[in-house]
Amino acid sequence: MKITRGEVEHISELARLSFSEDELEVIANQLNDILGYIDKLNELDTAGIEPTTHAQELVNAFRMDEPQESLNVDDSLSNAPEREGGQFVVPRII
Amino acid sequence: MSANTEITDLTLWQLRELLLKKELSAKDVAKAYLERISLVDPKVKAYITVTEDLALKQAEEADNRILKGDVEPLTGIPIALKDVLCTKGVQTTCASKILENFVPPYDATVVKRLKGQGAVILGKLNMDEFAMGSSTENSAFFPTKNPWNLECIPGGSSGGSGAAVAARIACATLGSDTGGSIRQPASHCGVVGMKPTYGRVSRYGLVAFASSLDQIGPMTRDVRDCAILLNAIAGYDPKDSTSHPSPCPDYEKALSHTVSGLKIGIPKEYFGQGLGDEVEKAVTKAMALLKENGAELKEISLPHTEYAVATYYIIAPAEASSNLMRYDGVKYGLRAEGYKDLLEMYKMTRSQGFGPEVKRRIMLGTYSLSSGYYDAYYKKASQVRTVIRKDFIEAFKECDCILTPVAPTPAFKLGEKLDDPLQMYLSDIFTIPVNLAGLPAISVPCTLSNDGLPIGVQFVGPPFKDEVCIHVGGAFEAIRGPFAPWPEL
């Protein structure tokens, strides 16, 4: 599959990344190289094979629903680029 | 040789004995390392952060513990950490501009365990940004050099962790391995590196790259050191729901000098195209040594090996693109300036904060997960992953462990593969299948190349048989005899 320049722009929107015109060109070429190599997977017939999302057989990991110590508000906000009181500050959304 | 150089030449277990006998104090040891770091690290550039004050304070505490007889295997041992592991109160950058000023409010579980044993933390080590790379050249700050030849890469992504052990500026280190990021730099730096079974070591506090593949592991001077460090970090952690509840054996007890009767599988697919002559010679030599000493070599087949890299470069970037969405300038890390609205803040922050390789993988991952392509890429790769894992499970019916090369060539020159991402990806061809299958594997130094660069061999064990890697790795090391003297720096 060949990825088009338009698709690269669309993907960059989804990925919340912006690129210059030159960068878009380079990245489209590199993605095409990599995807060209990945096309190799189509040699394999995988019909009916269960996908593996984890190389381990654990299904669910439950614990008792008991309150435990957690990070306090100050520690949780200690790396915030901008904060006010107990909250993260972001640009106006609505 | 000065007294200080001698201290930093000791293995972890030798140091442990001397500390226990009180022939050395933890403070002397920490000082010797800090002094060597200031002398040698300007050449090697393994450290992003040196935690001098913390190390001296911890050394003092370790000495108090030793005085009281409250000693654990790592008490007073100077250890450094890949900068992907969260350390409370100490910058954790992932070698990325986006986390340059990030100071975690908590310790990763492995860090907590090391501290609990009284280890001395020397600092945080360089890596490829977000562990994406095979050369440590993707660090946003500076590349690390290979101590055996300062013009060569140390491997990656745990290049700082490998180089620090080889340069004797840490007694032992922790790295992380998503597609070979512990084993490949271990091979290139002439040290031992182990990726435990997926689920054996808690990932809590490991900055996530590809969550179904990431695993933390030791990088050390020898296999005994590796076993001691693995003992400290392995085991169930309720904070990581993928950590396995089964008990861990004492890995140090798995050490053995004999391979007699051991069935070692040699996968024929690993010895074809792409394998460099010198590495092939090294692995062949390892095979001969093992056979002479009573191991049974058995040709096996892992028929889907050739699809592993393609599978990995769908799955790992897909998981990464999702994991890295959290870097949006809101909760921690960089926030760009001069944005008009929220969306622009996200885009500017991420574009300024991430380096080219990280962006490339986010793009690749976003593409393969996007509407219309999911089945063709992500689902397909997940199905191939099943097949690759089955290959290994079948193979382990015929053998106790599997021997393979680690990297196709010895360490390459800095800059050599920087402009060709696909070539860089293909250098992980022998390590990636192990992550896809979730298996334990160890890289042990085997020989030096004609140019004096180390070459390692890899031993892969069945799932949750990490002790098999320690056993065969340690026995191989004993059979091989002393490795080349550490490089002068």
From TrEMBL, chain A:
Keywords, comma-separated and alphabetical: ATP-binding, Ligase, Nucleotide-binding, Protein biosynthesis, Transferase
Q: Which GO terms describe its molecular function?
A: asparaginyl-tRNA synthase (glutamine-hydrolyzing) activity; ATP binding; glutaminyl-tRNA synthase (glutamine-hydrolyzing) activity; transferase activity
Record-listed E.C. numbers:
6.3.5.-
InterPro entries for the chain: Asp/Glu-ADT_sf_sub_c, GatC
Parts of the chain that traverse the membrane = none
Q: Which reaction does it catalyse?
A: L-aspartyl-tRNA(Asn) + L-glutamine + ATP + H2O = L-asparaginyl-tRNA(Asn) + L-glutamate + ADP + phosphate + 2 H(+); L-glutamyl-tRNA(Gln) + L-glutamine + ATP + H2O = L-glutaminyl-tRNA(Gln) + L-glutamate + ADP + phosphate + H(+)
The family database entries (Pfam families) matched by this protein are listed as: GatC
KW Nucleotide-binding (keyword) present: yes
Subunit record text = Heterotrimer of A, B and C subunits.
Biological role stated in the UniProt entry: Allows the formation of correctly charged Asn-tRNA(Asn) or Gln-tRNA(Gln) through the transamidation of misacylated Asp-tRNA(Asn) or Glu-tRNA(Gln) in organisms which lack either or both of asparaginyl-tRNA or glutaminyl-tRNA synthetases. The reaction takes place in the presence of glutamine and ATP through an activated phospho-Asp-tRNA(Asn) or phospho-Glu-tRNA(Gln).
The protein here is known as Aspartyl/glutamyl-tRNA(Asn/Gln) amidotransferase subunit C
Automatic annotation (TrEMBL), chain B:
Q: Which keywords, in A-to-Z order, does the entry hold?
A: ATP-binding, Ligase, Nucleotide-binding, Protein biosynthesis, Transferase
Q: E.C. number, please?
A: 6.3.5.7
Q: This protein's superkingdom?
A: Bacteria
The record places domain Amidase at: 29-469
Alphabetized SUPFAM superfamilies for the sequence: Amidase signature (AS) enzymes
Signal sequence residues: none
Residue stretches spanning the membrane: none
Q: Name one GO biological process term.
A: translation
Coiled coil region boundaries: none
One term of GO molecular function:
glutaminyl-tRNA synthase (glutamine-hydrolyzing) activity
What is annotated as the active site? Answer: 82, 157, 181
Does this UniProt record's set of keywords contain Transferase?
yes
Q: Which reaction does it catalyse?
A: L-glutamyl-tRNA(Gln) + L-glutamine + ATP + H2O = L-glutaminyl-tRNA(Gln) + L-glutamate + ADP + phosphate + H(+)
This protein's GO cellular component annotations are: glutamyl-tRNA(Gln) amidotransferase complex
Free-text function comment from the UniProt entry: Allows the formation of correctly charged Gln-tRNA(Gln) through the transamidation of misacylated Glu-tRNA(Gln) in organisms which lack glutaminyl-tRNA synthetase. The reaction takes place in the presence of glutamine and ATP through an activated gamma-phospho-Glu-tRNA(Gln).
Query: PANTHER family, from UniProt?
Result: GLUTAMYL-TRNA(GLN) AMIDOTRANSFERASE SUBUNIT A, TRANSAMIDASE
Subunit structure, per the record? Answer: Heterotrimer of A, B and C subunits.
**Family, per the entry?**
Belongs to the amidase family. GatA subfamily.
Q: What name goes with this protein?
A: Glutamyl-tRNA(Gln) amidotransferase subunit A
Source organism of the structure: Dissulfuribacter thermophilus
